[in-house]
Amino acid sequence: MNQNLSSYWIFYTVANAGNISKAAKELYISQPAISKSIQKLEENLGCRLFSRSSRGVVLTDEGQLLYGHVKEAFDTLNLGEDKLKRSIELGIGHLQIGVSTTLCKYILLPYLKEFIRRNPHIRISIRCQSTNETLQLLDENKIDIGLIGKPENTRNLHFHFLDNITDIFVANPDYLANLKKRGIPENAILMNSTLMLLDKNNMTRQYIDDYLQENHISVADSIDISNMDLLIDFAKIGVGVACVIRSFVSDELQDGSLVEIPLGIPIHEREVGFAYKETITPSKSLQTFIDFYHNYKPEENQ
User: Is the model's pLDDT at 1 over the cut of 70?
Assistant: First the structure.
């Protein structure tokens, strides 16, 4: 835009008023100042915008063309101002959360349900991907907050602990019975079964790979699965042994559709929690969410 916005506002007001004197009263500036602004705008655009008469001013064809675009622009600005005022009054905002599919379903949803009930005017966007990818999005300022498994180095993150999770290996009872018939002892199940794990880009998978390596457990056959729900389902129908989070299969362990495989050396618990960058100033929406999760306990509201 080559012209000053105030010049277009003067042009717009004069066009609506149809009279320079009336426009001067609306704008609280002198008639000569308005005439000078219009004259300069016409000179810069290289055309006449108004036809003048004793009764006032009328838009020329060129003026009509310009007026249509100027009106649309100011209508858009007015709409933006109205939306902003309404946003401030109602607490409307936007919160972008990064989380893995597994943590979203089993941990984030109870928080979101109550947060949305208390803050219905805050718009929520969810980016589902692995914890490693969530950390990258946080680093690039593409999301506001992430629900993650705590990394070894929290770097420049505020990390708020929510819960400990424990990884276990489970299988269908019939699958384990078949291994037993083949003479496979309990301490050799992992090495003699089809092991189902999350894909290699997942932080949980990397954690389990480290556990297997540290304990000299060599895997003969493995399948990479994209999410934990599928791991659980495949284990239930007897495809193999799945590495899952214990609290996520509590019902299956209780009803006997899955059986936990005993480990000589248990897998250490991991921490999960919300994380956001220390270097940012939280938006109003993010600060509202931070204040919420610091005080909300899902188990007390079930």
Answer: no
